[in-house]
Design goal:
heterodimer, A: alpha+beta, five-stranded antiparallel β-sheet, five-stranded mixed β-sheet, globular, B: alpha+beta, Arc Repressor Mutant, subunit A, two-stranded antiparallel sheet
């Protein structure tokens, strides 16, 4: 074990400043965790040498599951034996990240018994992340977690743990119950979550409104973003109250509207709802005066990803508006068709967005049996997908007649 | 006669065994290969067969960029 008093001048730099420091947290854990002590030693060496000292373990996991454990080994096991194995465990978080303090204590107790005690609440996937354990502890951890009602999350070429914003639990803008949909998809797709069978990962993220607090439009293969299809609800008196208290409605709201769908005559706010892009700007600025419409549901988008094999993609609209109500048949049916086509035709490590770019949206829609509509946009008022097939057929017919 | 999940599990196990050291196979590769060999078998049966192999420990999932199905072995990166 590395000497607890070993100096870590490089790491110490990361403790400076007024922001949280992972070094400070690891040092606190190192007071009672030998793994955390060796982690500091190995990190300091990596910072000095500018070389990472982790090896990827591709085989560790728990019996029957293909996801949830990310294997890590040190390439300096003799010098830092306590981090010789340092596997990460992903645990399926509750929808919206709501916990009782008892649940948090339970998780921490399990982790202190079997691992480094270091956690990441939460990882960018949304999961609870346990950082650093050894292979013999994996099954006992899994067993204790499941006994307490927790399960592993996704990793590898599977459905990643679905995640969502806090939704109607804490947010008045939620246009559908993100928590319920997330839970339902998680339970419905247990096989796909634990047994990797896709060309690559597939992520669902649910946002209750177009503010998209979980950034689903940039981070998920299928983004389900709450919206409304009727008119923004306006409380005229509240609008006047905002104006009387000094808000410059013309400058701050009307002129910042990306669709230019608003007019303010000093007494009344007029909204041309057919031009509204559902950007939420006006609603965010005047929450007491404006609210999303009453006919609520979600826009389903597809294909976002961060750059790994190819560049980053934002998702494009697949369904402009659908009602999000149990048992969520429309979403599940289309997901099954998407997975079928993608599994059959997708290349190894090809995300669904890349697959759609390769085969073309027209062919993709035909394969999943969805009719193209003008609202399948990549950006508001921008539709890069033009379907002229029928016109070509007509033209060809006319030419033949001539 | 219709194949059972156990019989398909044996077929998949043999495919994985034969590919060991030559090619890493994904669940979709195996499913396609089984259906080509036995056109009356559907994807669900292949899925059930893979589950049998995993739950019994005859095969394991591995991750090297993507997820694969392999025979259990000691990986070279592993420390004792």
């Amino acid at each position: 074990m590395a000497d607890n008093t070993v100096k870590t001048p490089m790491l110490d730099e990361l403790e400076k400043g007024k922001w949280p420091s992972f070094v400070k947290e690891i040092k606190m854990a190192a007071k009672k965790s030998p793994m955390a002590q060796d982690l500091l030693g190995q990190l300091e060496q990596s910072y000095n040498e500018k070389i990472g000292h982790w090896k990827h373990g591709g085989i560790v996991g728990v019996m029957g599951y293909g996801g949830g454990v990310i294997g890590r080994y040190s390439d300096l096991p003799d010098k830092f034996p306590n981090v010789s194995h340092f596997h990460t465990i992903r645990i399926n978080h509750p929808s919206g990240w709501f916990y009782t303090s008892k649940a948090l204590r339970t998780l921490c107790d399990i982790w202190e018994r079997h691992g480094s005690g270091l956690t990441n609440m939460h990882g960018s996937t949304g999961d609870i992340i346990f950082l650093g354990t050894s292979t013999p502890h994996l099954e006992p951890i899994f067993s204790e977690l499941t006994k307490e009602g927790f399960d592993l999350g996704g990793s590898g070429s599977d459905v990643r743990t679905p995640s969502c914003c806090v939704g109607p639990a804490r947010c008045e803008w939620a246009c559908y119950d993100t928590l319920a949909l997330t839970y339902d998809l998680t339970m419905s797709f247990q096989d796909e979550l634990h047994r990797p069978a896709f060309p690559y990962k597939y992520k669902f993220k649910m946002s209750g409104c177009p503010n998209d607090c979980v950034a689903s439009i940039a981070r998920s293969d299928m983004s389900i973003i709450g919206t409304w299809r009727d008119s923004i609800q306006v409380n005229k008196d509240a609008v006047l109250e905002y104006a009387s208290k000094g808000m410059n409605i013309q400058k701050d709201i009307v002129e910042n509207c990306p669709a230019k769908c608003m007019e303010w005559d000093g007494k009344e706010l007029h909204i041309e709802n057919s031009y509204c892009r559902r950007c939420m700007h006006c609603i965010n600025i005047m929450p007491k005066a404006l609210r999303p419409g009453k006919d609520r549901g979600a826009t389903v988008l597809i294909g976002a990803k961060a750059p790994i094999i190819e560049g980053a993609l934002l998702s494009s609209v697949l369904f402009p508006f659908i009602k999000i109500e149990p048992p969520y048949k429309q979403i599940k049916d289309v997901v099954a068709k998407i997975w079928d086509v993608w599994s059959e035709e997708g290349k190894n490590r090809e995300r669904i967005g890349e697959f759609i770019q390769r085969v073309g949206l027209g062919n993709f829609l035909e394969a999943i049996e969805v009719e193209p509509v003008a609202e399948m946009v990549a950006h508001p008022r921008e539709n890069p997908y033009v379907f002229y097939e029928e016109y070509f057929e007509e033209d060809e017919g006319e030419e033949e007649e001539k | 006669m219709a194949k059972t999940a156990e019989e398909i599990a044996d077929v998949i196990f043999n495919m994985v065994k034969e590919a060991t050291g030559l090619k890493k196979l994904k669940a979709t590769d195996l499913t396609k290969a089984v259906i080509e060999l036995h056109p009356d078998v559907d994807k669900q049966l292949c899925k059930d067969a893979i589950k049998i192999l995993m739950n019994s420990g005859r095969c394991v999932y591995t991750y090297f960029g993507g997820s694969y199905i392999e025979l259990p072995h000691r990986e070279s990166a592993a420390n004792d």
